[in-house]
Amino acid sequence: MYKKNITLKIGVIIIILLTSSCSVFAVEDNDSNTITMIYSFTTPVMQKISVDSNTYDQVDLDGAPCSGDPGLPSLPAYGASLLLPYGTKVERITVVPGAQNSLGTGFIVPPVGEPVPFSQYPPVSTPTSSEKNYTSTAIYPGELFTEVGTYSFRGYTILILRLYPVQYIPYTGGLFYYTEFTVSVETSTDAHINSLFRGLATDAEGVRGKVDNPAVIDTYAEHTCSPSSETYDLLIVTTETLKAGFEPLKQVHNTIIKTLTEIGSNDPADIRDYIRDVYLNCSIEYVLIGGDDNIVPVRKLRVNNEDIPSDLYYACLDGSYNSDGDTMWGEPTDGDDGGDVDLIAEVYVGRACVGAVAEVDHFINKTLAYINKSDTSNHDVWLVGEHLGFGGVAEYAGNILEELINGSSAHGYTTVGIPNEPDKYLIYKLFDRPGYNWPKSEIIAIINDGVHIINHLGHGNIDYAMKMYNPDADALTNVQHCFIYSQTCLAGHFDLADCFAEHMNVKTEYGAFALVMNSREGWGYYESTDGPSQRYNREFWDAIFGENITVISKANQDSKEDNIYRINDDDQIMRWVFYELNLFGDPMVGLGNSPPEKPQKPVGAESGHVGENYLYTTTITDPDGNLVYCQWDWGDNNLSEWLGPYTSGEEISIAHRWDKKGSYEVRVKAKDTYNAESSWSDPLPITMPTSKSTQMMSLLAQFLHNLLQFLQNLLK
Known about the structure:
Blueprint: E1 13-17, E2 22-27, E3 34-41, E4 45-51, E5 54-60, E6 66-67, E7 75-76, E8 78-83, E9 88-97, E10 100-104, E11 116-117, H1 131-134, E12 145-153, E13 156-163, E14 166-169, E15 174-178, E16 180-189, H2 201-208, H3 218-221, E17 234-238, H4 240-246, E18 255-259, H5 260-263, H6 268-282, E19 286-290, E20 299-303, E21 306-310, E22 348-352, H7 357-371, E23 380-385, H8 398-401, E24 407-408, E25 415-416, E26 426-431, H9 440-449, E27 453-457, E28 464-465, E29 468-469, H10 470-474, E30 482-486, H11 500-505, E31 512-518, E32 523-524, H12 532-545, H13 552-561, H14 569-580, E33 581-584, E34 603-604, E35 607-610, E36 613-619, E37 628-633, E38 643-646, E39 651-657, E40 662-672, E41 684-691, H15 692-715
Parallel strand pairs: 17-18, 17-19, 19-22, 23-26, 23-27, 27-30, 30-31, 35-41
Antiparallel strand pairs: 1-2, 2-3, 3-16, 4-5, 6-7, 8-13, 9-16, 10-15, 11-32, 12-13, 14-15, 20-21, 24-25, 28-29, 31-33, 34-36, 36-39, 37-38, 37-40, 40-41
Helix pairs in contact: 4-7, 12-13
């Protein structure tokens, strides 16, 4: 859910437009230790809903979806994301409400539903309200905010809050809301400086879209640095036996491959430490785990007495994920000082669940075939839904999947969906409906005939999804490999026997080039199209089509980070899904068309004078012939805007001036009109040894020296 379109207005107030119902104002404060933000809300909308023959009054406030734990009143909550100044920590948080407006009395707000796993058929229960909660005369939630946690993205410290603009008095059914909140965060100096801060311009650009107050990025600017001379985009971690099989990925990605032997350990903590080291020293952004769990082990993260296999552990590099030193990792108090674990990724991770050279070949061949495909005409998307038995509107999954077409504003938040436009994507539906349950032969035929994307919701198991078993996946014959996203249970359960996702991805030369699937149960709600897993599914497509995050691993992570402020909802089931959604595939692959090739190394002056403009030239080729844009990194903490468009193969020349003496590296990357990005070009080293003024002084000194010699000669 992209909510950070930013408009700056010079003066006391900086205005940031977020949604049609919520807006944010950053207030300039003379105290540099205080961040002050004003969050404004429009009038909530009331509507009658029916759940299990009970009628309720639902409160809708766009941008603030109803949230909470089962049985408690379901009220809107808004997520605030605040960047802390460099080298600071939170000292105190205060929220001052604005005008209080009554919505009336006599309302019966629905209780938050009980999450139901998609492996359960039929569901255990309907939403039930606690008599204690609904006969209370106390205001609920009775607080204006909760502190979700402090997290870090590449050394940038981000505070996440939940704001509660709507309040409820259960006994009288009274509802009121606040028109605005003034949020003040007092900070103090933090003696601990985050070691993951690289100071790269690309990192600064990455944090800009994650926070409500991007102006604070400037406090980090003086600590920036240039990338290492040895830079890569992708790190592959595998074994000596499998290493050679991954070499072909170097043809399409700027890749470094390291084996567990070279790392010196197969312990997850040591592997993570090594990833952290390469992240810092080689500027990587992606990691491919090249092996099944018994080869490159996964870290299991703890939620509700369940250990969930999660490669999130290799993506989020802050902290140990086990600060209390017990046998359970990833608990909500396993972060620094008993806080939450790191949930914002430094690198983006995918896994090739391979155990043999032949499986590596299948994985690589399918990945390269998709990246290098010459035919880009297949825009077919199939939404595949089964009979869930969850009652009412959730009896059939098709009603839930409909929210993915074009977009949805259901359940208090807006997401962009898959565009149902012939020149972009053609969406087809394979839905169970009353009197009709589609047989597995239909989905097999769809895959074999060639499909680009499948989004599935139905019941599943370790060896079962989309009504297919592992042998059915092994028998596929499709030449065009597909991408699959599924909310189903257990089909991504790769830590025991080979799961369905593995059979689709690496067991044969057919099937899928990539999948996003759950390593444990997926979760929904009784009689609702909302649910924990659906929230991530909606945000995944919003990332791709709303935020233009077309790289699958990034989109998967973005779907999680957009839900961080709800991480503890539903008795921690939102955390459960956050952990279990893993990518089976190459983390650098973009969904859709092929990205531009790596731009040619820039050509231009390799030394010069400070204050003078110099021209640099590159050429960018797009395999699909799309128009391209370029972005230049000048090595001096100046990252250009996206420039263009240019035609594929066109020679592109851009001028730049350095203001300080020093050594720099100039590099460039490209994106096409579908926002698919290339890797960075090889860098061109630059030195700026002198400034104009220094040069002039040198010339003047030489002139005076020559003049003096001339005068001396005259006097002789």
